[in-house]
Amino acid sequence: MVPFPHMNVRELVPGLSNDICECVKKAARFIENSQQIDGSWYGTWGICFTYGTFFAVKGLLAAGRTYENSYSIRKACDFLLLKQLNSGGWGESYLSCVRQVYVQGDCAHAVNTAWAMLALLYAGQIDRDPAPLHHAAKELINIQMQTGEFPQQGHVGNFNSSMYFNYPNYRNLFPIWALGEYHRRFFHRREVK
């Protein structure tokens, strides 16, 4: 593989950089305008408001928004923190998709917990108040099975708010991602202090 030196997009395709910037601005406004009153976003393909909020926060952060400069990200964090269970996890029912309002599930769900944790981590929660993230990490560790896998719990996928299913790898991928990101950010934070 031939390494390429860093190339400036403006040099490669004059005018394209401005078009990309304008597209990102419009996309961020679209995401902000799609936010629910409670601070969440309705998600499709995943269950439901936790999933949508995770990806909306990621999109806004990619567009240059931060917790400090974005009311939408602050509202999203407030929403997620409000839905955190006493156990430290999150658990949203598939009924959220049907009713189009957040419906609490019966217990913490590893994938919902991971989505919420990731959104909060990326939004800088660990620097404001890490306690909710410590509780969430502990809950994920408690959910994990002896084999290292996470159990298959309630549905995490949906199609058209009428068909519910599980993505086989979500039960492991998202919790491992969340714990890895938590570990990286928590220990980096400790090293900086």
Automatic annotation (TrEMBL):
Its EC number is 5.4.99.8. Belongs to the terpene cyclase/mutase family. InterPro entries: SQ_cyclase_C, Squalene_cyclase, Terpene_synthase_CS, Terpenoid_cyclase/PrenylTrfase. PANTHER family: LANOSTEROL SYNTHASE (PTHR11764:SF20), TERPENE CYCLASE/MUTASE FAMILY MEMBER (PTHR11764). Keywords: Isomerase, Repeat. One of its GO terms (molecular function) is cycloartenol synthase activity. Residues 22-183 form the Squalene cyclase C-terminal domain. It comes from Setaria italica. One of its GO terms (biological process) is triterpenoid biosynthetic process. The keyword DNA repair does not apply. This is cycloartenol synthase. The keyword Isomerase applies. Pfam families: SQHop_cyclase_C. It is an enzyme of class 5 (isomerase). One of its GO terms (cellular component) is lipid droplet.
